[in-house]
Amino acid sequence: MGDLGKDRGTGGTGAPQAGNGSTRREGDTVFVGHHEHTLDEAGRLILPRPFRDQLADGAVVAPYGECLAVFPAAQFDAAGRRLLELVSAGEMDPAAMRTFSAYADLVRPDKQGRIRIHPRLQDLAHLDGEVVVTGALQHVEVWSPSRWEAQLVRGTPAWNEAVSRGVGFLPAPTDSSADAVPVPPPAEPRP
Hints:
Helix content is 34%, strand content 23%. It is of the alpha+beta class. The chain has a single domain (29-166), classed as 3-Layer(aba) Sandwich (Chemotaxis protein chec). It is globular and about 45 Å long.
């Protein structure tokens, strides 16, 4: 219980604070890093310190594949407008939008930087006790450790393939075996 919610990871946000001389615009938050945390008995998660400032004005927790996504409130508002446009244009079934928004939950971190994860969202993402909190560029993801490890097994080869071809900000290496970004092999999934 002594390390409940303790940040045992690395990473942060690439979003500098306003007024620090950065050329980034407000809202250009980039979440990166990997953190191991614990849900307390009340279903509260202490947000990793690097993410707290970017989520202080509120966030939306929603199902996102096999995990939960935590979107900054302003970003979720923009995404909601885009979903409505897609529905209006006939490019998205309104039932999909309804399902997504029905499971979404508005949260605001308390003074200790905790957010409450609704029990139905915990069940959907198989969260119980230990969790993995990762940056996913524009949002934060909350994973069960076993699902996170399984995702790494699937994702590592895809990342290595993308690096070997050159991805946007990375040039393609001349010798993929020598210049590939080293990605440690994932641990075996827990039973």
